[in-house]
Amino acid sequence: MKALFLGYGRMGSAIGNAWREADLVEQVIAVDPGLPNCEQTLVYPTLEAVPPEPFDIILVAVKPALVASALAGLGEALCAQAVVISVAAGIPLAVLEQALQGRCPVVRAMPNTPVLVGAGCTGLFGGSRLTVAQHQLVGRLFAAVGSAHWVDRETQLDAVTALSGSGPAYYHLFSEALAQAGVALGLPAELARRLAADTAFGAASLQRRPEADFAALRLAVTSPNGTTAAAIEVFDQDQTLRALVLRAATAAAVRSQELSRGE
Ligand SMILES: NC(=O)C1=CN([C@@H]2O[C@H](COP(=O)(O)OP(=O)(O)OC[C@H]3O[C@@H](n4cnc5c(N)ncnc54)[C@H](O)[C@@H]3O)[C@@H](O)[C@H]2O)C=CC1
Ligand SMILES: O=C(O)[C@@H]1CCC=N1
């Protein structure tokens, strides 16, 4: 299987490298005017420079404002047999289909950066022209680099973006804050960083067990009148943390909706 990537920055290269390392695609070719040739990926500066051979998958991973123009330049020779996948936040199927003028079926995907280590999660929504075989292929491709989840309504992708698309950054911010707190409490910076990362990994591993209940996991750490209770009381005072998380996720979803209106 051959894959063409339009845009090979952080998200494009994370997916392309992961698919190639998992042997899901035999050849990855990218178009990216901002990159030199990568070690295992042939990178062309423009679409016109790509030899006119058909691809099975064409994944567009440019910034949302550039998606329509990047797709408009896709010639019949490249996309005659392809499924086009857009990972761009907010850009609606209707805009993607219009840019392609019906040349191929389209899927919207909202992955996240942990696809790079096979631990991503991706929300998917397919257009009406997608065949059952193509639906299965796209699901398999994203499941192979984490988990893949089809949503029923396109608008749900705004919530997926706010939760798991942007979500890794929330956890990284929390780890930054926790490591800084460790240093403030007297630990060497490297030890604080390591403890924060290992704690995030350990807690996530417990959360991913079948039937895991997040509240029960929290209570299992929280001895009555103990150290955790003292910290949780600060986080949960007047629902502070939960209210903040809701505000932050809502801001991300609203931004996704704005992007869909071209704002
Ligand atoms: N970074 C993330 O965690 C996630 C990003 N996304 C989406 O992925 C898309 C790309 O985001 P990032 O990878 O973070 O940005 P990025 O800036 O790292 O990558 C974008 C790449 O597109 C290239 N580019 C610009 N114009 C181009 C053109 N006309 N043709 C081909 N390539 C072109 C740039 O040189 C750059 O390397 C965005 O639409 C974003 O919404 C989706 C999920 C997660
Ligand atoms: O911040 C962004 O717009 C992109 C989409 C989800 C994660 N990064």
UniProtKB/TrEMBL annotation:
Coiled-coil stretches: none
Reaction equation(s) it catalyzes: L-proline + NAD(+) = (S)-1-pyrroline-5-carboxylate + NADH + 2 H(+); L-proline + NADP(+) = (S)-1-pyrroline-5-carboxylate + NADPH + 2 H(+)
Keywords attached to this entry: Amino-acid biosynthesis, Cytoplasm, NADP, Oxidoreductase, Proline biosynthesis
Keyword Oxidoreductase: yes
Enzyme class per UniProt: oxidoreductase
EC number of this enzyme: 1.5.1.2
Gene3D superfamilies documented for this protein: NAD(P)-binding Rossmann-like Domain (3.40.50.720), ProC C-terminal domain-like (1.10.3730.10)
InterPro entries: 6-PGluconate_DH-like_C_sf, NAD(P)-bd_dom_sf, P5C_Rdtase_cat_N, P5CR-like_CS, P5CR_dimer, Pyrroline-COOH_reductase
Family: Belongs to the pyrroline-5-carboxylate reductase family.
Family annotation (PANTHER family): PYRROLINE-5-CARBOXYLATE REDUCTASE (PTHR11645), PYRROLINE-5-CARBOXYLATE REDUCTASE 3 (PTHR11645:SF0)
Protein name: Pyrroline-5-carboxylate reductase
Organism: Pseudomonas typographi
